[in-house]
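Table 4 source record.
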Amino acid sequence: MAKKLWGGRFTKDMDKDFEQFSKSIQYDYKLARIDVFHSIIHTFALGGSKILNKPETDKIITALNSILKDIDTGKFKPDSDSEDIHTDIHNKLERKIGKLASKVHSLRSRNDQVVFNEKFYCLEEVNNIEGLLNDLLRSFLALIKKHKNQPFVGYTHTQRAQVILFSDYLVAFGHMFSRDFNRLRHFYDSVIPYIGAGALAGSSLHRKDYYKAIDDFFRYDRISAKKIKSVENSLDNVSDRDFIIELLSIISIIQMHLSRLSEDFILYSTKEFNFLDLPEEFCTGSSLMPHKKNPDFLELVRGYTGIVNANLVAILTTMKGLPLAYNRDMQLDKEPLFSSVKIIKDELKIMAKFIKAVKLNKKVIEAALEDEGLYATELAEWLVVEEKVAFKQAHDIIGKIIRFSEDKQLKIKQMTDTQLKRFHSKLNQKVITTVMNAKYAITSKKSISRKVPKINA
C-alpha cells in the first residue's frame, strides 16, 4: 500500500477497491507543477517562522526545484499507486531528502493546497484561452477584409429576411468572441489564489511570513505570483469552487458561440444553400458514398457542446448541497474542469485555421440576392421616408404587392407602372429599380457603426 499523508489513528488497511475508487492521481497529476509552487511558498514561510532552519529550508527548496525541473522537462512521472498529486510530490521529495520531507507539510492541509492549485491552473489556462480567442479573431478579421463589400443574405426564423454584408455577418461572431474575451479578463482579474487556510481554520504561521514567502516565490512565476495573497477567510477559501463554476460558465458561453457558428456554416455549405465552400482539410468522406464531403469538424464542435454544458451542470450539482467547509465530493471538480478547458482550447485552435480557409460561392449568393422578397422592407421604408406614409400602411401596401406577385407569378421588377400605381400612386419602375438592389439595401442603413472587434492586448 502506498505511503499516505495520514493514517496514525487507523489500525486497518484501506480496502483495496475503495483505495482505487478514491484516488485522483490519474487526473490531478496535471496540477504537479503548481503543487510544487505551493510547497516552495510554504517552505519559505516555514523558514521565515523559524520552524525550518536555513540549511533545512535550502535543502528542501533545492529538492523541490529538482522536481520542478523534471516536470518542466517532461521527465516527471506520477506513481500510479499515489493517492493524489500532493502525496506523490511529498513521496518524491522524501526520496530525495529523507525524513526532512515530513516537515514540509507542517501547518498546512491538502484542502489548502488543492484550491490554490486549481485557482492557479485556472489563471494559467485563462491566459491560454485568451490567446486562442485572439487568434480566432485575427482569422475573422482576415476573412472580413477579404470580403469587405460582399452582399449576403440575412435570415430570421431560418427564412430569408434582408440583405446584409457578409462582413457584418462575420463581425457579429467577432463581437460574440470579443465579449467572451472580456469575460475571461474579468475572471482573471477577480480570482485570487490564497495560501495559509490550513484544513479550514487557518494556520499558526503569521501573515507576514506568508507575504515574505510570496515575495521569495516571485522569481518562479512573476505573473501569477503578483496575485497570491495570505488567506482572508479560511472556511470560504477551502470550500469555494465558485471560480470553477464561473470559468466553466464562460467556457460554456464560448462553446455555445462556436456551436452557433458551426451550425450556420454547416447549413450554408449544404447543396440547398451552397453559399460556402468548407476547407477539405477539416472535412471527411463517407465509407460508402464516394461523393460525400462531410463537415465533421463543425459537427464535432456542435456535439461537444453537450459535454461542455454537462461539465458545468456537474459542478453545480456537486456543490449545491455541501455543508461548510471541505468535503470529499469536491475532489470530483477536476475532471469536468480539465475536460472543458481541453475541449475549448482544441476547438479554438482548429477553428482559427478553419475560418481562414472558408471560401464564398459568390455566384450562388448573387443568384439568391435576386429574391425580391429580400427588398420588401426597403420598399416599405422608402414609402415612409420619401412619401411620409405611416409604416403600418406602407407595410400593408408592400405586403399586397408581394401577394399579387406570387398569385400572378410575376416579378415586381416586371410589373408595369400602371400595375404598381394600383398599390400606391408614387410607385413606379424607377423606384423599384432604385430600391430593390443589394447596394441600396446596404447603404440605406444609417444606424450601423460597423465597428470591427479589436484584437485584445
